[in-house]
Amino acid sequence: MKKIMVTGALGQIGSELIGKLQKEYGEENVLSTDIRQPLEPIAGPFQVLDVTDGKMMHDVAKDFGADTIMHMAALLSAKAEAEPLFAWNLNMGGLMNALETARELNMQFFTPSSIGAFGPSTPKLNTPQDTLQRPTTMYGVNKVAGELLCDYYFHRFGLDTRGVRFPGLISYVAQPGGGTTDYAVDIYYKAITDGKYESFIAEGTCMDMMYMPDALQAIVDLMEADPGKLMHRNAFNVTAMCFEPGEIAASIKKHIPEFELTYNVDPIRQAIADSWPDHIDPSAAVAEWGFKTSYDLDAMTADMLEKLKKKLKA
Ligand code: AKB
After folding, report:
1. Do 4-166 and 168-209+239-312 fold alike per CATH?
2. Ligand 1 — pocket residues by CB below 6 A?
3. Which of 48, 108, 148, 188 could form a disulfide with 68 if both were Cys (CB 3.0 to 4.6 A apart)?
4. What does pLDDT average to in each consecutive run of 10 residues of the chain (314 residues)?
5. Residue 306 Cα to ligand 1 middle (Å)
């Protein structure tokens, strides 16, 4: 049975990933860590950990007897653009500490990259797995450097590093914070509470997205994949759908016909979105480890609205 340490466990992905991992591997085999204490009690072991403290990360992983690290702690794209130096220190410093901890303790390693690793010169449609990557954001620079570092640790030290390029992730559990794709989560909350939403992303801007249950399954499937079949290791393109704000609004209107979408574009997040692909090609992930998804836009909308209505009433 794996013993897994998760960093950033209280973040958007982490807070659901720990539940998924506990179901797969047992509650006592998943150590959640984050820079802050949880606001409410969470299941399983928890440890406060600042990922920029490499010695503490090593000691916590060793004491737990972890054989796997899933490094999720990172600043998202819009926040990284607002605080580039802080983003570099946290995103790159945290990643180096996690890779070094994994190397020293011989652990399997996962960290997510992002569609943010692409830039304006990348082909926008069916973006290939291996292509031009010249991002123009600090987040993108961090992600490309991170992809290369993970490949380096595999080739140089034989570390079992694995990863995906996530698109915007949508979930009703924890809200993202500081991302460019966050509008596609906010819109569901506002559809229920206000019946309308003002989008900070412009009409016609397509971005890749995925519903959280598919993202969590992808992490487990990649980590369990036969290493002999992996031609790539890190930064597999994965996506479930791509849409522009009008399309998600149309999907919501099927359940809330009076829902209204208006626009008040944020130039900074719009520039980031414009620099990313419209739709990436996940065929390498499909071929090498059987990547698949269960939710398209309408299935996700139905589930999001149902779950959020219950959550917001509670
Ligand atoms: C963001 O918008 O920054 C993230 C991402 C696509 O990596 N959701």
Report:
1. yes
2. 76-77, 114-116, 139, 166-168, 176, 179-181
3. 108
4. 96 96 97 96 96 98 98 97 98 98 98 98 98 98 98 98 98 92 98 97 98 98 97 97 98 98 98 98 98 98 98 87
5. 24
Instruction: Give the per-residue pLDDT at 269.
Output: 97
Active-site positions read 139
Which of helix, strand or coil describes residue 165? strand
Query: Which own/partner pairs from 29-32 qualify as long-range (CB within 8 Å, at least 24 positions apart)?
Result: 29/1, 29/2, 29/3, 29/4, 30/4, 30/6, 31/3, 31/4, 31/5, 31/6, 31/60, 31/64, 31/66, 32/6
Whole-number pLDDT of residue 177: 86
- Residue 154 to residue 109: CA distance in whole angstroms: 10
C-alpha to C-alpha distance for 298 and 254, rounded to whole angstroms: 9
* Alpha carbon of 105 to ligand 1 centroid (Å): 30
Per domain, the residue ranges of the chain are 4-166, 168-209+239-312
* Domain 168-209+239-312: assigned CATH number: 3.40.50.720
CATH architecture of 4-166: 3-Layer(aba) Sandwich (3.40)
Please say whether the beta carbons of 231 and 284 come within 8 A.
yes
pTM summary value: 0.97
**Torsion sign, CA atoms 130, 241, 125, 123:** negative
